[in-house]
Design a protein that fits this description.
18 strands; alpha+beta; 11 helices; 6-stranded mixed beta sheet; 6-stranded mixed barrel; globular; 400 residues
Length: 400
């Protein structure tokens, strides 16, 4: 953003929002946030700036020849349902309809003939970054409070304001304001510590679950499923809104305080620490002032993943979350990393279909492992080095 183009009122508002903590870009509630900054699901940012990408060939992608691209094809077709609206993606997404989804050679030829890979670079010119993992958890809950179901999941409260600043000041495109009205003035919304006070959100309860820590990590993941034991049904809970505060990692806090080693700061490690320090549970959770509100969706097909920022269902192990200011949502990305806590290669084609409040920078991704405890174990342990290659349509690439 160039501040030299901002009007004085815009600068004043922008500065006030940053100082107040209620201006968000992105608005993400946690490491996971299914809606990118200032975007409706399915909207697309401009193509990335060229100097952050270095043209390469498919031979430069480690493991490209060994990846079974048939497994990535459904995710690519899902991306095309949105990307086809753009002129530079119209031809490849139209041509994709004629490719045999069961023919690996045909799919490989499609990508190699219609796309150009670009090595993704950091601002300092290096190409190494970080990949973490996320998943869709299953919680146990009920529609009515009672017994062990004492922790509420909340819908967005009616006094939470969300203002798209770009609609007033084009210079502030992709910036949103979240807050509440007090005496005719917009002030920051309540923080987690305030919202966790008794009766702070009374009347906004969506469901009740049996574990406050699981509820916290559900906010970090951004979506999940809840088995309702009083009605014997399973529903999907998805991101609805957020209180406007930036995500802060409780794992990083514990490492900085010397409570955990860096290799212990996984979801599993944090839960172990909390089990040993139950009296400090609320203190730790309040380190992250961000708070996510949910809405309920019917779980029509349990095999289909939750929708990400692109507005299409995520595909297990073939979808990632990225920083949409650096990587265009929907685009194919080739990853070169390793399995969680392992030196075993993880080299495959995925689609950039999601975003998150903690996913910042070009060589940064969050890998969607899928649904359930097994996916959660892998996601919680994943914190690996990463290299990325962005695949762009060759016609668009030749215009650079």
């Amino acid at each position: 953003m160039s501040f030299t183009r901002l009007s004085l009122p815009a600068i004043a508002i922008f500065t006030a929002l940053i100082l107040a903590g209620c201006g968000t870009a992105p608005p993400g509630g946690g490491a996971r946030a299914p809606i990118a900054a200032g975007q409706a699901p399915g909207s697309l940012p401009p193509q990335p700036v060229g100097e952050h990408f270095q043209r390469a060939g498919f031979a430069d992608l480690p493991g490209w020849g060994h990846d079974d691209l048939r497994q990535a094809w459904p995710a690519f077709i899902a991306s095309c349902s949105v990307l086809i609206r753009r002129a530079d993606w119209l031809a490849p997404c139209t041509d994709a309809r004629n490719v045999d989804a069961g023919n690996e050679s045909a799919i490989r030829n499609f990508f190699e003939s219609r796309f150009v890979p670009y090595r993704v670079l950091n601002p300092d010119g290096t190409d190494n970054g970080l990949i973490t993992g996320y998943y869709e958890p299953l919680l146990q809950g009920a529609r009515k409070r009672g017994g062990r179901y004492q922790t509420p999941l909340y819908r967005a409260p009616s006094d939470l304001l969300t203002v798209d600043l770009g609609s007033v000041y084009p210079e502030l495109k992709n910036m949103r304001l979240r807050g509440r009205l007090v005496g005719g003035k917009v002030v920051p919304y309540y923080s987690r510590a305030e919202l966790d006070q008794p009766a702070a959100l009374a009347g906004n309860e969506l469901l009740w679950v049996n574990d406050a820590i699981d509820a916290f990590f559900l906010q970090v993941q951004g979506s999940g499923r809840v088995h309702l034991n009083d009605s014997n049904e399973t529903v999907r809970i998805v991101y609805a809104d957020q209180n406007g505060y930036p995500y802060k990692s409780i794992g990083r806090y514990l490492v900085d305080k010397g409570e955990l080693r860096l290799d212990q700061a996984s979801a599993q490690g944090i839960k172990t620490w909390l089990a040993a320090n139950p009296g400090r549970q609320q203190e730790l959770l309040n380190i992250n002032p961000s708070y996510v509100f949910f809405r309920e969706e019917k779980l029509v097909d349990p095999s289909v993943g939750p929708k990400g920022a692109l507005g299409v269902p995520l595909t297990a192990q073939r979808s990632i979350a990225v920083d949409p200011q650096a990587i265009p949502l929907g685009a194919p990305v080739f990853l070169a990393t390793t399995q969680p806590n392992s030196d075993a290669n993880l080299q495959r084609l995925v689609m950039a279909q999601d975003s998150g409040g903690a996913i910042k920078g070009a060589v940064r991704a969050d890998y969607f492992w899928g649904f359930g405890d097994g996916a959660g174990e892998l996601a919680g342990r994943m914190k690996q080095r990463l290299q990325m290659w962005l695949l762009l349509p060759s016609a668009a690439s030749s215009m650079r």
